[in-house]
């Protein structure tokens, strides 16, 4: 999977949501176009500008799919501009010169895009064309709308599961990947090797928040942890699943010792480099997305590994097989001149089976409709099939959209790091304080 989107996910826990709020606040007056504009007639020449963060090879893959749209609509020419991140998209909207179609790698900004009117409401088009949203899993429908306003459609998805080193498993007599957290803890202990001086040589599993794909939104579905209560308030202190999750992670940390774990991870390779710890057999198991299969094929083609759904809390065994998802979103910015033509392109990129399969095969991501998911033309390595099944599972989950982006994710992750390191002693009180911080920030960001 492309590094920019993976970096976007990591940044969601650290970036300032306030910057996006300030950028978009100037866009709210007047809202977007109301109603559904007609598509241009066959003899009406239109040029659509498309912004995306794709670059190099991956931009070429997108452009090839866009060529397919142009072949079906010869009157619509596509001006595809890559290396355009969310900041550039929002700046163009604020400056009154937006692209006709915007493609974003960060679902965390959907709350601002929808609530500010920066991205137009797509419901009039969906209703007019009777677009079948049941083709899209509920979790994906959820991350493309905010407070009932659908201002985006999905275009491919990332899905997270468990990667494990089969050779290391065999050496320790482990015949199958863990399905519960108790099994994960047991296998972690079996797989971990220490040097004579007590330092870590091989880690069975690394639980540190912020390390590789260890983020609270990826862990939460495995414990059934809910971000919000019935009134839309932060629910960390009241939902016992959060306490269970943090307590389990602390068990893993304490098995190693915080200082040993810190020293070990500080010496490991970067997440998107060939020196990644899983590539080198320094980590036996990890949570990661489907995109990692492409990295492994390129960097260590002979690595003997497999994938499985992430283990779940012991009392949530009936939810095994699901997992966390996020993905690329696509919408029509406020103020565009060719909204009707833009919708035709969005509908093609989000609902056309051939287009989605071509994108998925080229980019190494999960196609975001059920028809594309089950297409015979989808050609992926065997280890990729796990993520297709997770995406098709009813227990697929995503974190809720917020008017201030991923600020609440950063609050939860910061607390998790402080808890794991031993700085936090009263977990419940810290959860309650985090709830207040999240709710106060959300109120400032607007509902």
UniProtKB/TrEMBL annotation:
Pfam families referenced in this protein's UniProt entry, alphabetically: SBP_bac_1
Signal peptide segment: 1-31
Cell compartment(s), UniProt: Cell envelope
Keyword Transcription annotated: no
Gene3D superfamilies with a match to the protein in the record: Periplasmic binding protein-like II (3.40.190.10)
Superkingdom field: Bacteria
Keywords: Signal, Transport
Role: Part of a binding-protein-dependent transport system for a sugar.
Family per record: Belongs to the bacterial solute-binding protein 1 family.
UniProt protein name: Probable sugar-binding periplasmic protein
Taxonomic source organism: Kutzneria chonburiensis
């Amino acid at each position: 999977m492309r590094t920019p989107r993976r970096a976007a996910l990591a940044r969601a826990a650290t970036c300032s949501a306030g910057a996006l709020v300030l950028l978009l606040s100037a866009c709210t007056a007047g809202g977007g176009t109301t109603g559904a504009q007609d598509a241009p007639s066959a003899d009406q020449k239109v040029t659509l500008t498309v912004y995306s963060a794709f670059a190099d090879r991956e931009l070429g893959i997108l452009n090839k799919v866009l060529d397919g749209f142009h072949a079906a609509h010869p009157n619509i020419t596509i001006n595809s501009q890559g290396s355009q991140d969310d900041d550039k998209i929002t700046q163009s909207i604020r400056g009154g010169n937006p692209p006709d179609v915007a493609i974003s790698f960060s679902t965390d900004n959907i709350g601002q895009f929808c609530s500010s009117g920066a991205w137009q409401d797509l419901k009039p088009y969906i209703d007019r064309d009777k677009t079948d949203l049941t083709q899209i899993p509920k979790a994906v429908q959820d991350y493309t709308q905010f407070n009932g306003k659908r201002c985006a459609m999905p275009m491919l998805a990332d899905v997270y599961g468990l990667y494990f080193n089969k050779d290391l498993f065999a050496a320790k007599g482990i015949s199958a990947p863990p399905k519960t957290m108790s099994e994960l803890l047991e296998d972690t202990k079996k797989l971990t090797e220490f040097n004579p001086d007590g330092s870590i040589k091989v880690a069975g599993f690394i639980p540190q928040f912020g390390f590789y794909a260890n983020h609270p939104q990826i862990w939460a579905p495995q414990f059934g942890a809910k971000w919000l209560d019935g009134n839309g308030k932060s629910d960390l202190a009241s939902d016992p699943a959060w306490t269970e999750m943090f307590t389990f992670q602390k068990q893993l940390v304490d098995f190693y010792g915080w200082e040993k774990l810190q020293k070990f991870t500080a010496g490991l390779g970067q997440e998107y480099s060939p020196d990644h710890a899983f590539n080198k057999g320094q980590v036996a198991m990890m949570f990661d997305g489907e995109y990692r299969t492409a990295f492994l094929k390129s960097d260590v083609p002979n690595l003997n590994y497999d994938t499985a759904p992430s283990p779940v809390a012991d009392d949530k065994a009936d939810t095994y097989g699901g997992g966390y998802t996020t993905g690329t979103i696509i919408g029509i910015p406020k103020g565009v001149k060719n909204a009707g033509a833009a919708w035709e392109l969005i509908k093609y990129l989000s609902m056309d089976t051939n287009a989605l399969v071509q994108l998925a095969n080229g980019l190494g991501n999960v196609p975001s409709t059920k028809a594309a998911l089950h297409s015979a033309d989808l050609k992926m390595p065997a280890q990729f099939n796990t993520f297709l099944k997770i995406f098709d599972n009813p227990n697929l989950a995503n974190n809720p959209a917020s008017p201030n982006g991923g600020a609440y994710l950063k609050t939860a992750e910061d607390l998790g790091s402080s808890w794991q390191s031993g700085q936090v002693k009263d977990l419940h009180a810290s959860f309650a304080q985090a709830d207040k911080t999240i709710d106060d920030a959300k109120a400032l960001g607007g509902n």
